[in-house]
Structures are given as C-alpha cells and as structure tokens.
Design a protein that fits this description.
The complex is a heterodimer of chains A (116) and B (116). Chain A has no helices and twelve strands. With 116 residues, chain A is mainly β. In chain A, strand 7 and strand 8 form a beta hairpin. In chain B, 0% of the residues lie in helices and 53% in strands. The chains are: A mainly beta (116), B mainly beta (116).
C-alpha cells in the first residue's frame, strides 16, 4: 500500500523569505501523480501544484515550485517570497495512475506560519 | 466557472438524527468523491463515483453511511443515525476523466458536521 509522510508538523517563515516543505512517499508503482494542497483556516482544500511522475521537469506555479526526486521518492514544495496569505496547512498527496484506483492518499500535513 | 458546491457548510445535530450532505460537482466532471477529515484519521476517502456509478465504497465506515448520485450534477452523503464520532469535515470533490485535465481533483469548501 502507498503511504505519504510529511515529517514537519509545523514550519515558520518570515515574510518575503523562502521555505521548503518536505514530503516523502512509498510506492512500488512507476506511474502516479503527486499534489500539494493548501488548507487555510476556512478549511477549503486548494490545489497548489501537481506533478506527473513520468515528467522529469519539476512543476512550477508562480512562487510555488517542487523538487521531485523520483528515485528518492521525495516531493518537496518550495514557496518563494512568502506572503502572509500563504499561512495554512499544506498537504502532500499521492494518486496512482492505474485505472479504477482513484484515491488520493494524503500526508498528515504541515502547518506553515508566516511572520511579518 | 463554478467550483464544487457543497451544502450545508455547517451543521449541528443531535445524536440519532439523520444528516444529509449535498454536493454539486463541477460541470462536465465525471468523477465524484466524498472525503472525510478528522483530527485522528486525517483525510480519508469514503466513496467515489464514475459516471454516477459507485466504484469504490470501501472507505465507508459502516452501514449508517450511504451515498447516492442520482445524476451527473448531484450527490448526497447520508448518515443515519448520526453519532458524535461522525463529527468531521466532509469534503466533496470532482475531476474530469479527460487526460488533458491533468487528473486533478478539485475540492468543495466542505461541510462541517458536529453531532452532539
């Protein structure tokens, strides 16, 4: 069974600085998708960024980028130029690419605090 | 475009009462998911549908829980009778089956259920 591990329960960063959130996963599959979701206090789950395992190039979305290391099964999220609005819980998630296995497996989350 | 729409946003009910949570997926999406988030268990998949047909309900905790999708634009999750341990945030989510969508699952804002 696949698992996702986020080893940092909490992280903090100063406004305008850069922070990296860690995520590792365990799978025997070669084709899958990885996601980072943000959950602010409103509780809504908001997609931040996604990565297809077959793509070697790291995904980037504005200030958010990932460091995808397939061999190491690592998928970290880098937030550049941190803003107060980035404060939230961040969840790493895995999804198999196999047909009829449409299930997101989530890590336990990392709470990010942003200080002015 | 409208996102996934859930109702009610908040519900407080007494133990033993029936609870019905509602969801309208994003138009054109043919996969619909119900997730539950608790402090103890994190985010877990309860059930998902493809083209209105339940595909995997192995996450449904017990017979008190049932889910239906009578058409492509509406789904319900029912708990009868409700118990205090059912208190959680229930998320509905949807995705398109088309590869161009990137297999991304989009979440609603959640229904926060408290059973007293």
């Amino acid at each position: 069974a696949q698992t996702v591990t986020q080893s940092q329960p909490e992280m903090s960063v100063q406004e305008a600085e850069t922070v990296t959130l860690s995520c590792t996963y365990d799978t025997s599959e070669s084709d899958y998708y990885l996601f980072w979701y943000k959950q602010p206090p409103s509780r809504q789950m908001i997609l931040v960024i996604r990565q297809e395992a077959y793509k070697q190039q790291n995904a980037t979305e504005n200030r958010f980028s990932v460091n995808f290391q397939k061999a190491a099964k690592s998928f970290s999220l880098k937030i550049s130029d941190s803003q107060l609005g980035d404060a939230a819980m961040y969840f790493c998630a895995y999804r198999s690419a196999r047909l009829n296995t449409d299930k997101l497996i989530f890590g336990t989350g990392t709470r990010l605090q942003v200080f002015p | 475009d409208a996102g996934v729409i859930q109702s009610p946003r908040h519900e407080v009910t007494e133990m033993g009462q029936e609870v019905t949570l509602r969801c309208k997926p994003i138009s054109g999406h043919d996969y619909l998911f119900w997730y539950r988030q608790t402090m103890m268990r994190g985010l877990e998949l309860l059930i998902y549908f493809n083209n209105n047909v339940p595909i995997d309900d192995s996450g449904m905790p017990e017979d008190r829980f049932s889910a239906k999708m009578p058409n492509a634009s509406f789904s319900t999750l029912k708990i009868q009778p409700s118990e205090p341990r059912d208190s959680a945030v229930y998320f509905c989510a949807s995705r398109s089956g088309r590869a161009i969508s990137g297999n991304t699952i989009y979440f609603g804002e959640g229904s926060w259920l408290t059973v007293v």
